[in-house]
TrEMBL record:
Listed name of the protein: Probable dual-specificity RNA methyltransferase RlmN
Secretion signal, residue range per the UniProt entry: none
Cofactor list: [4Fe-4S] cluster
Note: Reaction proceeds by a ping-pong mechanism involving intermediate methylation of a conserved cysteine residue.
Source organism per UniProt: Luteimicrobium xylanilyticum
Listed GO MF terms: 4 iron, 4 sulfur cluster binding; metal ion binding; rRNA (adenine(2503)-C2-)-methyltransferase activity; rRNA binding; tRNA (adenine(37)-C2)-methyltransferase activity; tRNA binding
Length: 376
């Protein structure tokens, strides 16, 4: 791997060729101080780092031809070294008149991930992947059946965000130019199993421009199947993102079947950690509950869930029942609408704020992992 000879007394920053299974280091992987050091190691003044950050995070480009405020003789070297290509579009599917766009990405090593951009009348949301595949092995989840290939780097996640933000800014999504408002870590993978890269991404998302994308932490949602120690660690980060707990059953017997990590941390332990998150941050927690026909959609389970949530106080939680987006050949399917309505009504009778999650993209293999599974 070539290294740049630094000025006397400085240590070179390794940025180029990847090691096996590890993506090349990218500008978005670096802290502001590391970015400044990187450009110095390339023979430039430290202020060039801020110029690069402005192009990448504000103008959403890594194209050296657009960086006209940088010396022509060095912009190609800076871009080649600090902005190595990490993602390649392999497939793009559209639904809802082009306002829902699902992208299958190939990573540098052939790993596959997906992201989904959803534009609504007054907001836009991007669902990103944090891992290639997933090791949680939830049987109703397309990604869970793929197994875990590897964690994504911070830059591989940020690049999903930048690409979507650029599409919106350029007016490629129907409705005219717009900003990306919301980011949810609900794509492929278990975000808290890739804690370091996910938090690196979150810090980049919420950092003020031009050091980051300038998003509000309150518009960032981090989902988990219930990795209790990481949930408690997240509470202490001082970044008030929304925590979403993918529960899917209120009783240990069924949840251990649907969410195998439940054999390590039980329903009550996961709910206690979620309640702790609210206590520390003041941010209401979302409970995600995929409604699966004749499996977890019984009225008595709604009552049990309501009792367990209320036992931990009022006003700390919101439940999002999600009609299951079935995968081809799966025995799992969505609940009957009448059963779904009864489930919601029971929760509301317990005083639990409950909103059915909008499920876009069912006609474009909307469930995360479906496109990657097809390629496999």
């Amino acid at each position: 791997m070539p290294t740049v000879t630094p000025p006397a007394g400085r240590t070179p920053l390794q940025l180029a060729a990847p090691r096996r299974g590890k993506p090349p280091r990218h500008f978005a992987d670096l802290t502001p101080a590391e970015r400044a050091q990187a450009v110095v190691d390339l023979g430039e003044k430290p202020f060039r780092a801020k110029q690069l950050a402005t192009h990448y995070f504000t103008h959403l480009t890594s194209d050296p031809q657009a960086m006209t405020d940088l010396p022509a003789a060095t912009r190609d070297v800076l871009a080649e070294t600090l902005f190595p290509p990490l993602l390649e579009k392999a497939r793009v599917l559209e639904a809802d008149g082009g306002t829902t766009v699902k992208t299958l990405w190939h990573l540098f090593d052939g790993a596959k991930v997906e992201s989904v951009l959803m534009r609504y009348p007054h907001r836009s949301t991007l669902c990103v992947s944090s891992q290639a595949g997933c090791g949680m092995a939830c049987p109703f989840c397309a990604t869970g059946q793929l197994g875990l290939t590897r964690n994504l780097s911070t830059a591989e996640i940020v690049e999903q965000v930048r690409s979507a933000a650029r599409s919106l800014a350029d007016g490629e999504i129907p409705g005219g130019p717009a900003r990306l408002n919301n980011l949810v870590f609900m794509g492929m993978g278990e975000p808290l199993a890739n804690y370091k890269a996910v938090m690196g991404t979150v810090r980049t998302l919420v950092a003020k421009e031009p050091e980051g994308l300038g998003m509000s932490a309150r518009n960032v949602t981090v989902s988990t199947v219930g990795l209790v120690p990481a949930m408690r660690k997240l509470a202490d980060e001082g970044i008030p993102v929304t925590l979403a707990l993918s529960l899917h059953a209120p009783d240990d017997e069924l949840r251990s079947e649907l969410v195998p990590i439940n054999t390590r941390w039980s329903v009550d332990e996961a709910l206690d950690a979620a309640r702790h998150y609210f206590g520390v941050t003041g941010r209401r927690v979302s409970i995600e509950y995929a409604l699966i026909r004749d499996m977890n959609d019984h009225a008595w389970r709604a009552d049990l869930l309501g009792r367990k949530l209320n036992a931990r106080g009022r006003g700390w939680v919101h439940v999002n029942p999600i009609p299951l987006n079935p995968t081809p050949g799966s025995i799992w399917t969505a609940s009957d609408p009448a059963v779904e309505a009864e489930f919601v009504a029971r929760l509301r009778e317990h005083g639990i704020p409950t909103t059915i999650r909008d499920t876009r993209g069912s006609d474009i293999d909307g469930a995360c992992g479906q496109l990657a599974a097809e390629e496999e």
